[in-house]
Fold this protein.
Amino acid sequence: MTTIAAPRAGRKEWIGLAVLAMPTLLIAMDMTVLHLAVPSLTADLRPSTAQLLWIMDIYGFLVAGLLITMGTLGDRIGRRKLLLTGAAAFGVASVLAAFSTSAEMLIVTRALLGVAGATLMPSTLSLIRNMFHDAAQRTVAISVWMTCFAVGGALGPLLGGFLLSYFWWGSAFLIGVPVMVVLLVLGPVLLPEHRDEPEHRDEKAGKLDLGSAVLSLVAVLSVVYGLKLIAEDGFGLLPVAFMVLGLAVGVAFVRRQRTLADPLLDLRLFRERTFSASVALLTVGILVMAGSQLFTLQYLQLVHGLSPLVAGLWSLPNAAGLMAGAMTAPALAAKIRPGFVIAGGLVVAAIGLGMLTLVSATAGLGILVTASAIMGAGLGPMAALSTDLIVGAAPPERAGAASAISETGTELGAGLGIAVLGSIGFGVYRSQIADTMPAGVDSDAAHESLGGAVAVAQDLSGKTGDELLTVAREAFTHGLHVTALVGAGVALVLALLATVLLRGVKPGVSGHDEAAEGTPQAGIPDGAATTQTAANAEAVKTETAVGSI
């Protein structure tokens, strides 16, 4: 069989990656930039409690719920076309949100931003898939993409705090407008349209199945909303009902895909062990990350009394660690099997989580910051390489769907982390404070959360308020310790699973499983399988059969 080396990316592709990095950075920032604007926004628009919750949550809900639909839509109509359409919609919706004159208008515009955001996320990652054919270069490109996502999440509160110091709350939304203008100008020049390339074209793709789109939206939204309710109020009938509804609709969605000639989601992707194992590792790894960050950020603000902006500054070492881990992962994976690199990183993350048990209610800021940086450095390779393996294991014409599955796993992992680890930590807090509550203090708010205890303590005078703060901070710190230990245990289990499940992936080759050699990849017709071989640490050439898709 005659083989040819996959072309290596040049200057145009790397500049195109920089263009793709901008919306990625923006989407992550938009998840958090509004948090600091809540007081001024509330004073101006006077939303009800329910309206304020929808203003905060509707964006993330719709992004999570529409990822699969938009990823598959990009595979059908063209990823660049979908990206540029979404960019234009995001820019217009950002202006409308910034100048909203009522709570209802802001809810609607935030919803539009969520729909547009869902088109951007899978499009950026899937375009990387068909811009970088060389496996080693693609790993580096996806690591850069993942780093931008981490940086955006960290910069959101900081940039929001800066803007709110000089401008009105709507300025937080206008950040996205110049970014989208640049993308619309440079995108058509620098970004390829995958449907123009024969090897990336899916000639058999039919119309988008709207029934499947509705089922996927309902399934994901129900699960995410249930997780949010659990994070806020703990386990109860209502959140469990939403979770059960989401799972039931998810089962219906899967059954529908099996009967369709042109399914919204090709379930054959999950037959590839590398793909399914990487999705599981990414989802549970993000669970550990999100759950631990929930407690470390509250520790900075409510135990050490830092302002949100200062707490955001102290959280930057965690983002720096994540960036360092993600960016060193490609070099390591060129020499060491990716499964082993991921496993090693997870062991490092477990060490960082274990260090969190050394902080106390009165001291430990330096330990916490150091531990967070170590934890980020350990989780960076997991996030970057798992994403790379997911995208690399899928055939080129399914890159949009694979990217959407990767990002949906990230969203669900974040929700699960806050709900599961949050429930454990706050359960420990409630148990501890119930036994140590100062005499004469009977407050449900103080019993439910540290934030509630801080608010109650401010209304109490003298010694009683100080005693309440002391016992509440100690109870919260104990909850942080337990959560960190649980997270460390999960990280070690994931390290073992990565070693076992990804042992067949060779160094320097993304998505290739030795155990599957000689067999077609999921979703690829017989005889069109792709074979890949590592050449060296600097340049890894992938060998692709002539006449493949």
